[in-house]
Amino acid sequence: MLVPTSISATPNGTTRPQVRIVIVGHVDHGKSTLVGRLLHETGSLPEGKLEMLKAVSARRGMPFEWSFLLDALQTERDQGITIDTTQIRFRTGSRDIVLIDAPGHAEFLRNMITGASQADGALLIIDALEGVRDQTRRHGYLLHLLGVKQVAVVVNKMDRVDFSGARFAAISQEISAHLSALGVTPSAVIPISARDGDGVAERTPRIAWYHGATVVEALDALEPARPLEQLALRLPVQAIYKFDDRRILAGRIESGHLAAGDQIVVMPAGKVAKIKSVEGWPVTPINGSQTAGRSVGITLDRELFVERGDIIAHVGTSPRDTRRIRARIFWLHDKPLTTGASILIRLGTRETRAVVVAINKAIDPGELSSVETTSIARNHVGEIDISLPQAVAADPYGDNPRTGRLVIEVNGRIAGGGLVLSVDTGQRAIPVDIVPVESALRPDERSARYRHHGAVVWLTGLPGSGKSTLARALERRLFGNGGSPVLLDGDTLRAGLNSDLGFSAADRSENIRRLAEVATHLARNGHIAIVAAVSPSREDRAAARRLADMFFREVYVATPREVCESRDPKGHYAKARAGTLQAFTGIGNDYQPPTNSELTIDTSARSVAEATDAIEHMLANSEILFNELVDLAANI
Amino acid sequence: MHLLAPETSKDRSFWTEAPDGAAVHKFSPDQSSTQPSPTALLALAPSMDHLDALEAQSIYIFREAFARLKKLALLWSLGKDSNVMIWLARKAFFGHMPFPALHVDTGKKFPEMYAFRDRYGKEWQLDLRIEPCPPLETIDPTLPPAARSAARKTEGLKLALAKYGFDGLVAGIRRDEEATRAKERVFSPRGTEGGWDVRDQPPEFWDQFNASPPPGAHLRIHPILHWTEADIWAYTKRENIPIIPLYLANGGKRYRSLGDRDITNPVVSNAASIEEILIELDGTKVPERSGRALDHETEDAFERLRVAGYL
Question: What's the structural domain count of chain B?
């Protein structure tokens, strides 16, 4: 979770910058001890807490440890390691610090990442006796990958090396070299003894040779994250709400600003509109500019098809639409990520399936050595190319840190994440080795012959509603008029092109996507593709509409369920009732009727010929079929 | 060889770097005690203040939960935190709360709390579901008294879950309340028994939430996890959100946290207004839940309850 950093309004009216800090490093190098000591030194401990823990320690017959403060969980005390992220607040001279402790144990890297991803700055802790370890390097690396640039290093347990200035210098040099190679310059390298307090809030005589900042001073000098207002507008759409007759697009402004009257573009579709109003509650509309970090709701001046995952931007500074992304990722899943893996990615509010088409690099950041490049193992990082079934809007991380990062999900659980390095652009970005060949004929040459433009007539409805019958009648009618209709029947395509697909939600979506792709291709080439498919999911049909865009004409075959079941032309209802047909749409409530179809037909109330007439009229009125009278009139 | 070649490392440099490009901070001994320089304050020009930022984040979480879960409910304890949550939900959904408010009722709340529930349940047009808890006799008798009483609530919650089949419960816990709560995720999966596996929490970063609980399990959604007690009061005041008067001092005492009548004690206080509460909080080091008996009964009483599904 990332709370936009801002001025902290304290009850007495003063304003103090709030900075979030993470403390990372190798397990047992003393993070929890340092946190306990920091809380004590800044006077931030709850009354009685220290005494309570000292009493607990005494009862258990063990010496008091500062780390007990954080290890408040029974399970942790038993095992003696910090297992999760804890947030603690305290104050330095000029900052409110939110301290996010993060575990050092390699087993819990996911928790370290959860903690560090929220931080503005970091303390990297190193044991003076043990020096730089693999987990030290790994954490240094991940800080960088997560975008945490402000790093101070603390060399702890100086009491164990007799406060040796030489030992400190050697470690300081090694870690500075490592971090510099990653592009990070530590703001300070501080010798401390967290247990005894040297270097934490005070430069004690034992470290008299050190003249730099103490830990508290280093924290006090950290800057809050820079606001994202100066960047171009990015408003990822979280949801579309229809409350009180308003159609509100809701989301959080990730960067830039917006106001009513702005010309915006919805990506990846590239559709343009104007912001009619910024809605709010209890006061609405909200006037003035809304800036990065705000959760807003807007209405547009026209009805555009917008869905969750789209990104709203200003015309001229929109993100790119892409079907191929190169990303630098870290991997947290037990099973290595391999080339060819089918994954789910989340980019902003967009969720999409994707395929890993290449793994270019894979390394263990602890060892800093490149390893095999066909897979990325757990806790390793790498560079991958991913290919997406449909275009998404994305920015390279360098252009926009908020819309330039993604997470990868495996089995419904976040398994990795990373930064977008580059996107391939283009309305229909295609892998580089594929060169599409356009038809030799222009669309208008075909339409001159067929007397119609290309179209996708999408018939949706329950099984048995009459879609196929209607589709065949329409095909005959259009062909009879000299046109070029092509029937794409859902079941027919399932027997061939889509024979690899089942009836899970994902497979149904893919089935619809392929139907829509083929239909759109036909429409682009001047044919009228007549699709007859149950297509129960509103979301899937919306995706089809977006793909086919201006060619799309949806016809809802709204025959009542009882009539469909009594017809049962394929015997499916009977089988489903008997329990021998699984995942059948029609018995349950899993058909989502269209709300914005171009035409609705109830075949129980009309003959096939009348229904076909209705579709033909709709096509004529929506400028697919040429109006012969108008054409004649133009030629007189 | 490593991935962060020099030419690519710059692409990430600008947003955490200071505006003058100085990622490296110079230290001088006297700098620590001074206020931030005027230029530092200028760079932080507050187009959003602290409460705005908290609010925006909570709204974002509410909308994510509503978009990604099928059957949500908000746990309304009638306390200050859950009232702020309802307010935030209505902001997120433009005056509406498009899912039920669930009150798991022990029957032992203060009369002021029931009056509050009955009034604002109507006024805020909530889809209010009141679920009674099972009798105390059915609860593990080996628990200390207050913990046992609270465990009743856990059972009541389990019954409500079974009855309605919610896949997401919005709960008003905060990280600053109690050490175990600090470990929480914003979207926190619970087992089929409602239990919390603190050792196996999925990673959660960049506001990307794990929203696919395994079949039979549910998610806890924590929209105000990042708020503090002082934040809650400052926001309650700013937004003019109604509160139960028990929070304000009466005869030198007030309730900082409201639970069951028999296991909640007032604290010594003269804070008779929200402003005074805020001033009091600024100086106090006494934990918020100190009036809650169950937290102190045994060292691990609270955590045992959490693992069993207590909020």
Answer: 2
Which of A11, A72, A225 shows the shortest C-beta gap to B179?
Answer: A72
A295 touches chain B (CB under 8 A): yes
Q: Are residues A610 and A529 in the same domain?
A: yes
Q: Do A398 and B11 make contact, defined as CB atoms within 8 angstroms?
A: yes
Residue A73: predicted pLDDT: 37
Q: Which residue of chain B has the CA closest to A223? A: B18
- CB-CB neighbors (< 8 A) of B240 in chain A: none
Q: What percent of chain A has pLDDT over 70?
A: 86
Last residue of a domain, one of A368, A392, A423: A423
A46 with A183, same domain: the answer is: yes
B129 in any annotated domain? yes
Q: Which residue has the higher pLDDT, B225 or A505?
A: B225
Q: Which domain holds residue A151?
A: 7-220
Residues 6+ apart with CB under 8 A from A416: A329, A330, A331, A332, A333, A337, A407, A408
A188 with B14: Cβ contact below 8 A: no
Q: Return the residue matching tokens 């507008």.
A: A233
Provide φ and ψ at B185, rounded to 5°.
-90, 165
Question: In Å, how far are A412, A511, A543, B239 from A508, measured between CA atoms?
Answer: 19, 5, 12, 46
Could you tell me if A613 and A464 lie in one domain? yes
Q: Do B49 and A83 touch (CB under 8 A)?
A: no
- Catalytic, A535? Answer yes
For residues A573 and A561, the answer to whether their CB atoms sit within 8 Å is no
3-state SS of chain B: helix, strand, coil percent to 5?
A: 40, 10, 45
> A234 vs chain B: nearest CA distance in angstroms?
15
Asked if residue A49 has pLDDT above 50, the reply is: yes
- Domain of B275? 229-295
Number of Cβ within 10 Å of residue B215's Cβ equals 7
Is B130 inside a domain boundary? yes
Helix (H) or strand (E) holding B309: none
Q: Does B207 reside within a domain?
A: yes
Domain boundary among A250, A281, A314: A314
> Has residue B79 been placed in a domain?
yes
Q: Which residues in chain B are closer than 8 Å to A148, comparing Cβ atoms?
A: 16
In whole angstroms, how far apart are CA A30 and each of A19, A125, A158, A335, A378?
A: 22, 7, 11, 31, 25
Phi, psi of A507, rounded to the nearest 5 degrees: -70, -35
Which of A10, A182, A413 is closest, CB to CB, to B282?
A10
Are B57 and A118 an interchain contact pair (Cβ–Cβ within 8 Å)?
no
Mind telling me how many Å the CA of A151 is from chain B's nearest CA?
9
A221/B208 CB distance under 8 A: no
Q: Which of A277, A375, A535, A537 is catalytic?
A: A535
Residues B64-73 have pLDDT tens digits of 999 999 999 9
DSSP for residue B213: P
Q: CB–CB of A73 and B198 under 8 A?
A: yes
Does the CB of A93 have a partner CB in chain B at under 8 Å?
yes
Average pLDDT of every residue of chain B: 78
Most confident of A379-383, A599-603, B278-282: A599-603
Q: CB distance A9–B49 less than 8 Å?
A: yes
User: Lowest-pLDDT range, A21-25, A517-521, B286-290?
Assistant: B286-290
How many domains would you assign to chain A?
A: 4
* Residue A614: CATH number of its domain: 3.40.50.300
Which segment, A66-75, A353-362, A433-442, B298-307, is predicted with the most confidence on average?
A: A353-362
pTM of the model as a whole = 0.66
Least confident stretch, A282-291, A561-570, B228-237: A561-570
Which residues in chain A have their CB less than 8 angstroms from residue B56's CB? 4, 252, 293-295
Q: In terms of domains, do B57 and B181 share one?
A: yes
Mean local confidence (pLDDT), A393-403: 89
Contacts of B208 in chain A (CB under 8 A): 346, 407, 414, 417
pLDDT above 90: residue B16: no
